[in-house]
Give the backbone structure.
Amino acid sequence: MGKKDLSLKTYLADPARYADVYNGSVFRGMQVLDASQLEEAATVAAKADGGVSLETTCKLYKNS
């Protein structure tokens, strides 16, 4: 987890990009996810030293 990981997380932090990548890879280009319906979700990542860090690397779909 170095520069590549940080670059990808930074790129996918934008809801429009996240929705575009997800729609393209999971739904074969069909526009299923709408960027305006996404919100950040905290994920927990365990560190090698036993600590815990919080990262926002995924999105939740708001079902209104």
User: Anything to note?
Assistant: The chain has a mean pLDDT of 78.
